[in-house]
Amino acid sequence: MEDLKENKTNTAAGDEVVIHLEHLKKSFGEKDVLTDINMNLKKGENLVILGRSGEGKSVTIKCIVGLLNQDAGKCEVLGKEVNELSSDELKDMRQRVGFLFQSSALYDSMTVRENLAFPLTRVLNLKDDNEIEERVQEMLENVGLEEAIDKMPAELSGGMRKRIGLARTLILKPEIMLYDEPTTGLDPITSREISELILHMQKKYKISSIVITHDMACAKITADRVMIMNKGEFIAEGQYEELEQAEDELVSSFFK
Predict the structure, then answer these.
(1) I want to staple 114 with a disulfide (CB 3.0 to 4.6 A). Which of 74, 110, 236, 251 is the partner?
(2) Which pLDDT tens digit goes with each residue over 104-147?
(3) Of 180, 194, 242, which Cα lies nearest the Cα of 56?
């Protein structure tokens, strides 16, 4: 795959906001996880969120897709408050917002072809076998794994499983992608390939993305903008190179 880092610019298509979080709060019992989250994701941009473990990064994106309900504040996705969506509206929203879990969450009993076809038949209710096959082939070509179409997940490396998981999420053509530690457990070369693939898919399909990562190489490759979370709120934001030079000790510690 081409090295996209050299050509990366802010791809935001303007000031249209696709995710708006305002004074978002979430607690579990007496533990306050999100204390005051304020964030906008603009259409077409890659936003990277950094923060130590347990700071609430994954809780934030679970609120965005309605897997968790916030205790207070606004959580608006594509112009609608997630907490106020009916079950049907929530289902429709999740078709427009893809979520790539750390585990890639492939079905072990299905081939790669069947894994990718599953959301087409179950979510989009596609019936035409030719259309399904074309979409599956297109996505496998995107991630460079056409030859793996008849393999089982157990036959794939960790990097290949991550690519197939990404292909299966993107096959529904979401407008927004949420990546939860997309390069965790991968070697540096494979991590770079996944990071460049995220960037490639953003450009090809004009996707707006949030990337949660501890991998600073991934952050540098993918980020149009970086936000740093500490104690349940964002304490800094800017371009990677700006934050890398920050005088604040906590902010600069992420880049050492």
Answers:
(1) 110
(2) 678 899 999 999 999 999 888 999 999 999 999 999 998 999 99
(3) 180
Enumerate the β-bridge partners of residue 97: 176
Nearest one of 131, 107, 100 to 197, comparing CA atoms: 100
Instruction: Quote the domain boundaries for residue 230.
Output: 5-55+62-253
CB atoms within 10 A of CB 122: 9
Count of structural domains within the chain: 1
Separation between Cα atoms, residue 25 and residue 34, nearest integer Å: 5
- Residue 242, number of CB atoms within 10 A of its CB: 13
CB count, 10 Å around CB of 125?
7
pLDDT 10s digits, 238-254: 999 999 999 999 999 99
Say how many Å lie between the first and final Cα of the chain, rounded: 28
The C-alpha angle 22, 28, 32, rounded to 5 degrees, equals 55
Hey, what's the torsion of the CAs at 104, 108, 113, 116, to 10 degrees? -40
Global model pTM greater than 0.85: yes
Gap between the Cα atoms of 233 and 231, Å rounded:
6
CATH number assigned to the domain comprising residue 177: 3.40.50.300
